[in-house]
Amino acid sequence: MEAATTAAPPHRPSTTPSRFRRLRDLIEGPELGFLMEAHSGLSAKLVEEAGFAGIWGSGLSMSAALGLRDNNEASWTQVLEQAEYMADASSLPILLDGDTGYGNFNNVRRLVRKLTERGIAGVCIEDKLFPKTNSFIGEAQPLADMEEFCGRIRAGKDAQPDDDFVLVARVEALISGHSMEEALRRAEAYHAAGADAILMHSKKRHAGEILAFMERWGGRCPVVIVPTMYYSTPTEVFRNAGVSTIIWANHLVRASITAMRETASRIHREQSLAGVEAEVVSVKDIFALTDNDELEAAGERYLPAASVPARPVGPAVRPVRGIVLAASHGAELGAYTADKPKCMVDLRGRPLLSHLLGVLGRAGVRDVAVVRGYCKQAIEPARLGVGELVMLDNDDHATTGEVASLLCAVERLHGESVIVYGDVLFRRYILDALLAVEADIVIAVDALRQRAPGGGSRHEPNPRDLVAADKAFSASYLDDQPARLVSMGERARETPSGEWIGLLRLSARGAEWVREEMASMQAEGIAATADLPALLSRLNERHPVAVHYITGHWLDVDTITDLADARNFS
Ligand code: SPV
Ligand code: MG
Fold first, then answer.
1. Which residue, of 84, 458, 527, 558, has the greatest Cβ tally within 10 A?
2. For the MobA-like NTP transferase domain, which residue ranges apply (predicted)?
3. Is CATH 3.20.20.60 correct for 19-256?
């Protein structure tokens, strides 16, 4: 019951605190905590993937996802079922929105028992009447009798089989137009009845009444808030006011409505999937999210050998290694890279490298090594949000080039591999497509970036990355064969077909060829300062290097303007 059912290997003793304990710690701990809304197994997975420590099982969002109103149109057992999908899909603790408790004290105590059985770590009940109406609808909704509601709280607490189960009492006084005195009176009564925390709700556009409550409440027990309406108040204000936990209550269901609307209307308008393909996650991403690899491994353990299905030979399941060349300083970025390498510049709260590793991981490239150089200690795995990462060091980075960095990873250059510069970002579908190209060495080339430098555009190709290929990019759906590299760099300047984006894929044989070529370059004494275009040019003399064309949806960070673009890149 503790870990996501698909992810937990059998019989692994767990040292992780229970979900009940983790929710209690989150709510009672000294730090401001956050619960992110989820409404389904899938959204629960995405909350965990984003790094949250807990889930808000929102009644509004679950109802909306079922196409229902937030008026108890979904029965409590239907809500319980959704919560169970979430608990199965993620290992996070869930605070379930239990509305009013679906009745009186008796319904609450049964609810608490059933939630505990399903590994739901806590419930929030609100002092209104069944059937409830969403608090943002209408004015002056009737409140439950305070004493009766205290009975619901006491019954829930008396029924909980696990001491750490959390019961949050939600005070609707302010949102229903009652006074601060009434809100305080109710909060006090619910606290005395045994609630572990008070959720004080407000629908004001500013946080005034919440802050006033915080001041008068004086930290008697943890306070949870839901700033859906007063979203513009900086989080720091709540932290300073001593709020225990913030619930981001409905933003995943709202985001999904935006995305589904746009996608459906575009497909309807265009009568084609071509326009949306680059905008949506791949089918492979769905397989990764639902952990199909685990099912395959389990099949090998449990099915009779003769009936184990042949391993699909798609990019979804084959192991692909990654090597990220991240030794460069990025001196053009000035103060941004004074104490860290370019790959660690911040993009919306996370280092560039963390975004890049995320794309690699989602494309199935998980066994990744990062070659560090400049300010290597600044590449901290803890800040990158990935589990296992191998760090290799090019300590001569100041005087050597990319081939020297790649040589640091030569021991890992076996089997199918992806090599990428650490200052590049691209949409996931580009890597998916590169992994699907049937070639031993294939490079991703942007066909829209082919003008020779000096043309005055904001994104001039880097001369050393210019590519000339044996056929130009064609938008025809009939032409799915890769082109072949003819030349790179200065020699491609007269007839450029595009710019290499700093991303290449090798088959196992391609990886072997690269090792051989680098060994030859070492023997000739030219490896130390050579760049990757030089290596690719040499390889191309002996083995075909395929060119996979793309049109945009990537960037590299060389200048401060690039950095601004990267911050908007998604
Ligand atoms: C929910 O998410 O269902 C809530 C929070 O109860 S609110 O919609 O703000 O009432
Ligand atoms: Mg609700």
1. 527
2. 322-448
3. yes
